[in-house]
Amino acid sequence: MRDTKEDFYVLGIETSCDETSAAVVKNGRQVLSNVISSQVCLFQKYGGVVPEIASRKHVELIVPVISEALEKSGMTLEDMNAIGVTYGPGLVGALLVGLSAAKGLAFSLDKPLVGVHHIEGHIAANYIDHPDLEPPFICLVVSGGHSHIVYVADYNQFEILGQTRDDAAGEAFDKVARAIGLGYPGGPLIDKAARDGNPKAMAFPRVYFDQGSLDFSFSGIKTAVLNYLNGMQQKGEPISVEDVAASFQQAVVDVLVNNVLKAARAKNTRNIALAGGVAANSLLRSQLKNFAEKEGFRVFYPSPVLCTDNAAMIACAAFYEYKKGIVSSLDLNAVPGLKLGER
User: What's the pTM?
Assistant: First the structure.
């Protein structure tokens, strides 16, 4: 293990999808700056991310965002001890922009390069907001592209206990939001609409697998919502967007909470964490907290800004990689389909 007794500063870079982000993090957990330039408004008219446009936007923004992160932190590039960057999974063109910038900086400054798995970054976001959280714990990672239940054995040791067999939870949110006319991004819009709806108005399906599986499936509930909407349209009957949103959201959250609690019981760990964009969902946070605390579990989740894609979480994960002696060579390439735990 490398000696990190003195203060250690990591410049983190994140460009896996449609957020261009750079951050400076001290000793893995103290965020000195976290600049995020989101393209959400740009893609609202398309109803989702257009990879080529996202990549071009990253090219425009990467240098100004890094400069702003350094300025806000009061640090310089020479002050950095390492450069951490997302190298997968994600959109290959988007990943390459951040990775190229990080490799160029690491080479020119003669600083260590630390490639970070995007999902490991999301998990690490919890360390920033919860200084007392340490492995082992169970983490539910839910985002637009991922739905995982992960046993975090150590800072860089992960065991996947369950994952989606089709649509990710965030993907289902986006598709249902588009179907009921809410727009993009679906997660926060459904969360907001559901507050005025009846979660018991429609009996949308909950999918649980047998033989102790902790896997998820959300394509069925998406189809059920579409069938309901088509049926109501054919009958000429009005649709309550709020009731559909609330009923759909309740069904998804029921499955997520049920499976993560089963995982915590199986691993006999008392700590459960949330991570990813859907971790900002108000019903998921409250329902998991309520059910978990009844069984003596502690629940941790990042602040909303750290649930979305951001570079602070990447810098945090990079710090713990470096502490274990894990660094990357300058021929590191983007791996859009990178699996959790792969190096």
Answer: 0.92
